[in-house]
What we know:
alpha/beta, six-stranded mixed β-sheet, 12 strands
Amino acid sequence: xxxxxxxxxxxxxxxxxxxxxxxxxxxxxxxxxxxxxxxxxxxxxxxxxxxxxxxxxxxxxxxxxxxxxxxxxxxxxxxxxxxxxxxxxxxxxxxxxxxxxxxxxxxxxxxxxxxxxxxxxxxxxxxxxxxxxxxxxxxxxxxxxxxxxxxxxxxxxxxxxxxxxxxxxxxxxxxxxxxxxxxxxxxxxxxxxxxxxxxxxxxxxxxxxxxxxxxxxxxxxxxxxxxxxxxxxxxxxxxxxxxxxxxxxxxxxxxxxxxxxxxxxxxxxxxxxxxxxxxxxxxxxxxxxxxxxxxxxxxxxxxxxxxxxxxxxxxxxxxxxxxxxxxxxxxxxxxxxxxxxxxxxxxxxxxxxxxxxxxxxxxxxxxxxxxxxxxxxxxxxxxxxxxxxxxxxxxxxxxxxxxxxxxxxxxxxxxxxxxxxxxxxxxxxxxxxxxxxxxxxxxxxxxxxxxxxxxxxxxxxxxxxxxxxxxxxxxxxxxxxxxxxxxxxxxxxxxxxxxxxxxxxxxxxxxxxxxx
Length: 516
């Protein structure tokens, strides 16, 4: 049997004294100006001993006294009384009453052992009652609701499923449920699992406003990203961050953005030093320059400052979350597109744009893209079918880059494909357009305005996108919720590998809502 036959009662059927003797109580509200009070009905076992009956009579008297007081809070008081009645019902008449010092978890374990705990029946009852009222006509009313069981958005306070409801179902204290919801630990594994199962069955969602009001601290976040102007890849990341800032501002979160020259180690080091001086509560960053990133994250870890990575990941660093593309897989996809129906014996250029102080390779992300590209060739044994030439260009040496490319084209008359593993494929397109070189399959990354220009005019065959706005938005939101609500994050959150051609670029939506 469930502990409560009816979670919420309808209008009282009778006020006759015999009703109380039968085990239900329906006291009236003495002050007509007060809101309607709905008393939960609870069947009292007629075999209770006189001690138990005396306690119930005492509770009924307290209810009447509470109702006579115009300043009471009915939900809170009645739930307290219900909890006491539940405790009485959970004990047999031959057992002594549990002392007030007993732990809720121990109580729950004993009652479970006695098979007096039937959560599924009570869950079904709560779901049925909580969905009885119609949906809110005003979305703001639903937003103000405490919980959203199933697909219903509740419009009336009396139809909310509250923490105390969950506590009754799980046979634990409300504080224990609260610790599970906010991931604060200190809960026995079996109790945690039972509570989580009930939360999942009820599709239980915390009240946003109540959680916000409970925040007692101001949080300062620092965002460390490359410099950007409108139309750049990193500009889109910042757009997503700005949208997230608006949404988490109620969490008492403030954000400061530090920007560096992505081709200068010195610029990066200067901003990381400034970041450490600020000593923020959390950091969102793009991990450029591996050695310097490892040094920075070591200090942040020592200070217990959580870090979220965007754009590229550093697997050896323990971060709160990573939002970005699966770089190796995107390189694999690029090779599949490049080599599909490409004439055998063709030459393919694999181009990198190197950063200052990092002459041996490009960024961590571009290196993994190249690894994925080569993995496709190895998997399908194409290394003898195509000639691959690795080309290293330099970010701040346009004339030197042009001379290098001119020489490569003079020496190789059968270049039929070019892939660039960072977002600057437009620089290759500029070079080819200036020399009127066509009929080369060109694949690049990211939807910079200049890249998209060349995609639309047919110079670039394909662009692979990774939703930078969402990276920034999700990254900052995860960091803020972790700090304000102790909400856990999935450690690795891959963005889709979006493949764009001139035929589908016009209808491509890079963000699910407007951020302008």
